[in-house]
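User: Let's play a game. I give you a shape written as tokens, and you guess the letters that built it. Ready? Here's round one.
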């Protein structure tokens, strides 16, 4: 494995784990988070943009998507996963985490769609 994409890279804590060893990309919507990430992890290449668009010009060997999936409604969740697959090398690795429906906070706030709440 040589390259990793971190969709929704925040301030860079995920990318920093990889960037010493792999060519690492972070895609992030927040300008402020992106600025912090660039300072925190100078080895990664950060791209300002949405994970709902296919941004990378090259395919990566792995995608590490930490705590992003549950931020979106179903249509955009499918778009995020489809974009990830499009940017992944054949036989590449996908790693996704998501908020658990067993978490004590599950069910808080308005119901947005089945199984998805505002908070
Ligand atoms: C819960 S945080 C997780 C950040 C990072 N994965 C981590 O573990 O530190 C979600 C991040 O996704 C970013 N984000 C939300 N929607 C996005 C989008 N459509 N495209 C890119 N980034 C997005 C937010 O700005 C935030 O930094």
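Assistant: Ready! My guess for every position:
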């Amino acid at each position: 494995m040589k390259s990793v994409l971190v969709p929704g890279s925040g301030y860079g804590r995920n990318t920093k784990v990889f960037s010493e060893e792999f060519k690492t990309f972070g895609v992030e919507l927040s300008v402020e988070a992106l600025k912090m990430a660039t300072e925190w992890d100078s080895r990664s290449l950060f791209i300002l943009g949405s994970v709902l668009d296919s941004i990378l010009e090259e395919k990566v060997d792995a995608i590490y998507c930490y705590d992003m999936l549950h931020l979106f409604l179903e249509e955009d969740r499918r778009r995020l996963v489809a974009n990830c697959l499009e940017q992944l090398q054949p036989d590449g690795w996908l790693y996704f985490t998501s908020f658990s429906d067993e978490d004590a906070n599950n069910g808080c706030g308005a119901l947005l769609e089945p199984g998805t709440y505002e908070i």
